[in-house]
Design a protein that fits this description.
Length: 217
Amino acid sequence: MKPIKILLVDDHSLIRDAIRAHLSGEDYQIIAEASNGKEALAIIEKDQPDIVFMDINMPEQDGISTTREIKKRFPQLEVIALSMLQESQYIRQMFEAGAKGYLLKNCSEEDLKHAIEHVLDGKVYYSPEVSDSLIQGFVQPEQHISSGSVSVKLTNREKEVLSLIAQEFSNREIAEKLFISVRTVDAHRRNLLEKTGSKNAAGLTLFALKIGLIDPK
């Protein structure tokens, strides 16, 4: 039996090294690594892996848009998201883009191998924590906040981050307060800028004031 050919896409070499260590052996072959979506697409053109482990937040080209392009150009290639983002909105976006699995970066070696087996068997796989997030997303759906004539959809976590941004906390301070990583805070900040149409932190603060998220005083 030929080894399963795997492409690792993550902008942190330590994460790639950890996954490589978990998937060492004759059943798996890490054929290449990429630090962003553009690199990944170039590698796929040349090497044709069986599975791609895809991070979401990366420079140059993010994992969601890359997954969407992979499934359009290489429909037979399966993608498994490997991220520290646990919010249901990211999980849904990755599955909508065409991913067949979603794992958190603190997953076990067993999770990685189970995900590969399920996805190559035509099934969907996500870790228990991801399942819980999806269920929570249905139980407590994202809230719609009106901004003029546009309905802006914010998760509870995004509202927490927005409130702290408006109070002039840095990304690191927000991460410490919410017990999440700085990269996750940065991802929330970018999403908030896009959703609200703001250009900077000042714009986000004005939006937070407009919707009553913070006290004008």
